[in-house]
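Lecture notes, continued. The same structure-token format from the folding unit now serves as the input rather than the output. Read the line below as a description of shape only.
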């Protein structure tokens, strides 16, 4: 499986991660499923409402999800995934990410090392929900 993310959206994800450093940023990816591939057409930033240390956790509230879903549908799109940053950690899912993941959706992670974005990866929960599978990112 692959996910297409335009260069502008990639820049926005990286900028949001750097802006929120040393805390995790988070947001929604809006777009379409086309011929088995996801295409991101827009992003929607979300507040990180985690009560745990925001350097290692993010939380998007149900109300924020409902608002993003409504906005996406108004523009003829769907929520196809989430993005978040990993400050001073690799762009790989944590156990916390796995424990809170939903099937079908993509999870883009940008590593932000000392305030500068580095690696950007995408992941999808595998069928038995035991782990993530890497998803190819097509940044065009």
């Amino acid at each position: 499986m692959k996910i297409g993310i335009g260069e502008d959206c990639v820049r926005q994800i990286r900028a949001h991660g750097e802006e929120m450093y040393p805390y995790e940023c988070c947001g929604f990816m809006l777009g379409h499923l086309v011929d088995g591939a996801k295409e991101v057409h827009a992003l929607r930033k979300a507040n990180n409402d985690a009560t745990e240390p925001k350097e290692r956790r993010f939380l998007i509230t149900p109300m924020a999800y409902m608002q993003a879903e409504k906005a996406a549908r108004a523009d003829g799109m769907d929520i196809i995934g989430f993005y978040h940053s990993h400050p001073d950690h690799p762009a790989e899912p944590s156990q916390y990410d796995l424990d809170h993941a939903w099937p079908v959706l993509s999870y883009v992670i940008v590593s932000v090392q000392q305030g500068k974005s580095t690696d950007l990866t995408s992941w999808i929960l595998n069928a038995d929900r035991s782990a993530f599978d890497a998803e190819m990112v097509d940044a065009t």
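Point for the exam: Residues 64 and 138 are 27 Å apart (CA to CA).
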